[in-house]
Amino acid sequence: MSQIAHVIVDVPTMQTNQAYSYAVPENLQNIVAIGGRVIVPFGHRKVQGFIIELSDEILMDTSLKTIESVMDPEPVLTEELVQLGRQMATDTYSFLISCYLTMLPASLRAHYKKWIIPTTHDLKQLPEIFNEYGRISWEQVEQQHLEQQILKLKENQYVRFEYEVTDSITKKTADYFELIMDAHQLKQEQKKLTKRAFRQQQLLEILLKKEKGEQLSVNDLRDQEGISRHVIEAAVAKGWGIIETVEVLRDPYQHKKIEPSSPLNLNNEQKKAYDRIIKAMDKNCADTFLLEGVTGSGKTEIYLQAIAQALDAGKGALMLVPEIALTPQMAYRFKSRFGDQIAVMHSALSEGEKYDEWRRIKTGKARVVVGARSSVFAPLKNIGLIVMDEEHEGTYKQEEHPRYHTRDVALWRAAYHHCPVILGSATPSLESRARASKGVFKHLLLTKRATNMPLPKVEIVDMREEMKEGNFTIFSRALAQQLNRTLANNEQAVLFLNRRGYANFVMCRDCGDMMQCPNCDISLTHHLHDNKLKCHYCGFEMPLPTQCPHCGGHHIGYFGTGTQKVEQQLQQFLPHAKILRMDVDTTRKKGAHDDLLEKFGNHEADILLGTQMIAKGLDFPNVTFVGVLNADTALGIPDFRSAEKTFQLLMQVSGRAGRGKIPGSVVIQTYNPDHYAIQLAKEQNYEQFYLHEMHFRHLGHYSPYYFMAKIEVSHKEEAVTAKKAQELAEYLRKQLSQQSIILGPSPRSIARVNNLYYFQVIIKYKAEPKLKEALLHILESSQKEYAKGLRVMIDNHPLNFM
Ligand code: ADP
Ligand code: ZN
Question: Is pLDDT above 60 for 503?
Answer without folding.
Answer: no
